[in-house]
Amino acid sequence: MVMSLLGIVFGIAFFIVTQAQTSGFQKVFINTILGTSGAIRISDRFQDQESTISEVSSDGRTHFIFKNRENSRFVEGVDHPSKVIEALSNFPSVIGISEILETSGTLNSHSRGQSVQVHGIRIQNHIEVSNLEDQLIKGSIRDFEKDRMGILVGYRIAQRLNIKLGDRVNLIGTQKNFQLRVSGIFETGASEIDKKRIYIDLSTARSLIGKRFGGSILQLALSNVKNAPDVAKQIQESIGHRTVSWQEREKVWLDVFKALRVSSAITVSCILLLSGLGMFNVFAIMVIEKTRDIAILRSIGFSARDVSSVFLWQGTIVLIAGIIFGIISGAITTYTISHIPLSVRGIFSTDKFAVNWDISHYLSAVLIATLFVSVASWIPARRASKIEPAKIIRESI
């Protein structure tokens, strides 16, 4: 019985810890993508065909089939961002909008050059839809805002090109070249961004590619990011531009984290299952050994329900003790792990184990433990309640 109790305690604790870790890293990943690419991105405009004649009926009327939007052609970028932004202001869930002009270029320092992804932004609008201000490890947003020829570079670009704060760099675009001053160095934790992306002023970006208007995208922040797919669908139907939520963009990675959570939950639940089997064996043997005692209890007035209650209460006591000590152990272990140093750079950035404190982890562990222990207690209790006292006493005489 003690081993079964320890199994329940460790099973609940391990379940809580593994779920806290997997969901913790997922939360860091989600915060990273929301802080870099926003909750929703609006890009190309759908170019629906007018219609095509399918057939002419006997009465002379023509029937039209309109081109499916998913197969329709696109016009690159948002041609009239100011009008689209005005339309988006009617959506109450949209709390921030940033116009971004994306292009490519070559960034040259005094030592070498590198191809980069250029993002032209209006900095005050962009910090409303991203964590760029918090991602700066050197420099400041104010310096970048005051200097139209300023540039923000990813820290991996800065390492590769040996760039320091305040250095002058040469950005080569499709139409023009600019000498820019490094106003800040940022780190998002996403390696593909940190080693390729730079930010410059939107007007400078337009001059770089020789495009006075059009071709930009819009990045949105929402009051509730979980509703991004529904909001994106409404926006796409309203403005006729391709609108993608963060869940759709990052579906592959979200599915990976989901698989890890389910896999760890199944693995750790096996500990609780083994504890339940151990308790079942203990109670089953107890019923066999105490058959005569049960018969005596039944003969002096105990009902079948009273007999089964004896075993059920034993299982309940063990379960309650296991839940209490398991939750305490899980919380203490989770807190301890959250302070263990761990440097991770790749799809997100963290310097320690990421954990997520969520009551659902505790409730799920308690529910699984209750299910296994209840079944393990109920089967022997039911068998004990069916013992016939007259038969047992007669066989023992």
Q: What are the low-pLDDT stretches, counting only 5+ consecutive residues below 50?
A: 49-54, 62-69
Residue fraction in strands: 15-25%
Measured distance between first and last alpha carbons: 32 Å
How do the helices and strands follow one another from N- to C-terminus? HEEEEHEEHHEHEHEEHEHEHEHHHHEEHH
Mean pLDDT: 83
Tell me the number of helical segments per DSSP (H or I, 4 or more residues long): 15
From the alpha-carbon coordinates, what is the Rg to the nearest angstrom?
Answer: 32 Å
Q: What is the number of independent domains?
A: 2
Return the structural class. Answer: alpha+beta
Helical content band: 40-55%
Tell me how many strands there are. 15
Most strands sheet: 6 strands, mixed, barrel
Strand order of the largest sheet: 5-6-11-8-10-9
Shape: elongated
